[in-house]
């Protein structure tokens, strides 16, 4: 279900919007919000990431020598996920996206809806995230 109104969206965003994602703002087009769900003691990083309508992150790669990657669990609103060279996939609550290590991709909200997902970094050996170029406005608007 699409949500354009932030107040209505927050009523269904069960894990909460959290705070503006200022630490990673350089890697997003539009405003995103971050609500960490686990701390370092958990050994597994989980955060609820919320995107305002039209917000998306840059192309990026979760590198790993072994293991690694990312899992997205869509929880509210509607969004997009795309791997390089493939068609974009619509995201809606209940959809799970498993992103293998070393795959260039991006994800974010649809132009006309708020969107949230839980992002989980998959443990691995020698993991890192490489942030790349923004998703081109023309490419995004054609979705």
Automatic annotation (TrEMBL):
Pfam families: Cupin_2
UniProt superkingdom: Bacteria
SUPFAM superfamilies: RmlC-like cupins (SSF51182)
Cupin type-2 domain segment(s): 49-111
Cross-referenced InterPro entries: Cupin_2, HNL-like_cupin, RmlC-like_jellyroll, RmlC_Cupin_sf
Gene3D superfamilies: Jelly Rolls
Protein name in the entry: Cupin domain-containing protein
Protein source organism: Guopingia tenuis
Taxonomic path: Bacteria, Bacillati, Bacillota, Clostridia, Christensenellales
